[in-house]
Design goal:
Radius of gyration of chain B: 26 Å
Helix content of chain A: 40-55%
Largest interface: A-B, 69 and 58 residues
Oligomer: heterodimer
Shape of chain B: elongated
Radius of gyration of chain A: 24 Å
CATH topology of the largest domain in chain A: Alpha-Beta Plaits
Distance between the termini of chain B: 81 Å
Strand content of chain A: 15-25%
Structural class of chain B: mainly alpha
Mean pLDDT of chain B: 56
Distance between the termini of chain A: 42 Å
Number of strands of chain A: 9
Order of helices and strands of chain B: HHHHHH
Chain lengths: 255, 141
């Protein structure tokens, strides 16, 4: 085999890693994953080609969408496989070490931080919730055109349309805030992200909520009920993704 | 209905308003911008340079292709979100910076002669260490 370096997907507990059928979990380039254990922690890794994962090669490859997609999906698949067995702290894409000894050193150096992160997400999953402002329907009729004063009635119509749009937007924002507050009551933690721009997201509606929630099993059921709740349906279109491994919450520092 | 790749207990039929599978945008959003951030032996600064390059490339050069693939995650980055002027503002500042640097460069390159009045002002320490013959005439009377 050509020279390889060590790609790190995730950190979990040694006991959890022990239960993994590592040979059955396929990482980047089809290589089965390996466990690197130190103390009570284990990193899930796989060997990758040293040439393709050099600093220089990565700088180029990361701009190759197809390559990036392949790596991202492989990374995500390994993280998800580990997450089925127990608490997992996903490591960011393209974290590469020269050898397994350096990975063990990492586990030792950051042992307390990893342990705290794993404790925080134990038995919990991440869900993504997005809310889009539903298209405004109906509402007050705009003032009828006045043939004698076309300029004035044009301006009045424009103002009425603008006011109605603003009310619709504000209603949606308020509804999204209410949904977020409600979901937060059943979640252990939440993270808000900036809404995506409708021109680029492909959704015509404006995104008014983009959030991730960390929930336990009971919370997950409650969260799903809240997202499906029809009360918000008049002003919002909800989108739920998950369950995810706790990407947004397994951080080394206290969130 | 699973989209995060984990098994979902119960509930067979997903409601209509949900997406059915993990799209690439959602995955990239997570694997690139979230998770444990540690410096590996191979230095790849995703956030500072390369990721920004990808984002800009997607944003500027191939928005249509990216949209086809369902990629819209650059909008999560406040510095790139449109409507907030982040990228435009940064571009403007960078352009100004480049212009300023280019304007300053010829004077620098002309060395220690009379054409570099700002140099002695900007680098008093170096100037003090320079031999007297190199100093700008009239600099110190």
């Amino acid at each position: 085999m050509a020279d390889t370096v060590v790609y790190v997907y995730a950190v979990t507990e040694a006991a959890i890693a022990e239960t993994l059928d590592a040979a059955a979990i396929v990482g980047i380039g089809g290589a089965p994953v390996r466990r690197v254990v130190s103390g009570g922690l284990a990193a899930v890794v796989s060997p990758v080609d040293a040439t393709r994962f050099s600093e220089e090669a990565l700088r180029r490859s990361l701009e190759d969408l197809q390559w990036l997609e392949d790596i991202a999906r492989a990374h995500h698949a390994v993280v998800a496989a580990v997450a089925r067995s127990g608490p997992v702290a996903p490591v960011r894409l393209a974290t590469v070490y020269l050898d397994e000894a350096n990975v063990r050193a990492l586990l030792d150096d950051r042992a307390a931080g990893f342990a705290a992160a794993l404790d925080r997400i134990r038995g919990r999953t991440e869900w993504g919730v997005k809310a889009f402002a539903a298209r405004a329907e109906g509402g007050a009729e705009p003032p009828a055109a006045d043939a004698a004063r076309p300029g004035t009635s044009y301006l009045m119509r424009r103002r009425a349309e603008r006011d109605r749009a603003a009310r619709g937007h504000q209603d949606a924002v308020d509804a999204a805030e209410a949904v977020h507050r409600e979901i937060s009551t059943v979640a252990v933690a939440s993270r808000r992200y900036p809404p995506q721009d409708p021109r680029l997201s492909g959704h015509r509606e404006e995104m008014v909520l983009n959030a991730a929630y960390l929930v336990d099993q009971v919370g997950a059921d409650a969260l799903r009920r809240l997202v499906e709740d029809d009360r918000a349906a008049q002003s919002l279109r909800m989108e739920l993704t998950g369950p995810w491994a706790p990407y947004s919450f397994a951080t080394l520092d206290e969130p | 209905m699973t989209s995060g790749g984990l098994p979902v207990p119960g509930r067979a039929r997903p409601p209509d308003h949900r997406r059915e599978s993990a799209n690439l945008a959602d995955i990239l959003e997570r694997v690139l911008d979230k998770g444990i951030v540690i410096a590996g032996d191979i230095k790849v600064n995703l956030l500072d340079i390369e990721l920004l390059t990808i984002k800009i490339r997607l944003l500027v050069a191939s928005v249509d292709k990216a949209k086809e693939m369902g990629i819209d995650w650059w909008e999560h980055d406040p510095s790139l979100s449109s409507g907030k002027g982040g990228l435009a503002e940064e571009n403007r500042r960078l352009r100004e910076r480049i212009e300023a640097l280019e304007a300053a460069r010829p004077a620098e390159l002309e060395g220690d002669g009379a054409a570099a009045p700002q140099r002695s002002a900007e680098r008093p320490l170096r100037r003090a260490a320079r031999p007297r013959a190199e100093r700008r005439s009239g600099d110190d009377g």
